[in-house]
């Protein structure tokens, strides 16, 4: 098996012009920091990786695997036509919070509502990037255009700080067909921050996850259960 190491500075150099306009909407703090571009790697991976690479799984470091990651590759076969990215739902009401203004103006909306019927947003801890599909999707590439991003952030009154996760979440509200939703067991997030910050009444509707966990995600420094 072959291991290829990519230089972060080199990648950032290629990324920055593609994601620069996006960063001001989805980065912590104000302004556009060159180094922040790396938090948008997944968004433009299809433009940076060599053409012969057709599929990539991108994962956070704070994960614990309970099954062979190879099984996750089978999920690529379950993508519907037009889907380019596989991603699990966010398991806290973070986007219920972020979209508060849009939700207030659109009381019937599914935006920010809990599963199974709502659109709780995504968590980018485990990502399946079908680079081939991303390259070929006219819609997806249009959504990377600064004017389109700007228009969507205005429509949804969106200001985030979680990088690629915010971009995918916002795009998913508008174009859910671009995403294959992974089962929560592939990205079982453990962070409960929002339970103690104003959302205890609805928290469990987001946090609930049935089935045998395949990947634990100890986000916000949450300890992962021992075997």
From TrEMBL:
Q: Which gene encodes it?
A: Xxylt1
State the UniProt keywords alphabetically. Transferase
For this protein, the record's Gene3D superfamilies field holds: Spore Coat Polysaccharide Biosynthesis Protein SpsA, Chain A
GO cellular component: a single term? endoplasmic reticulum membrane
> Is Transferase given among the entry's keywords?
yes
Q: Which organism is it from?
A: Mionectes macconnelli (McConnell's flycatcher)
GO molecular function of the protein, one example? xylosyl alpha-1,3-xylosyltransferase activity
Q: Does the keyword Transferase apply?
A: yes
What GO terms describe the biological role, i.e. biological process, of this protein? protein O-linked glycosylation via N-acetyl-galactosamine
Tell me the InterPro entries matching this sequence.
Glyco_trans_8, Nucleotide-diphossugar_trans, XXLT1
Q: Which Pfam families does its entry note?
A: Glyco_transf_8
Signal peptide range equals: none
Q: What is this protein called?
A: XXLT1 xylosyltransferase
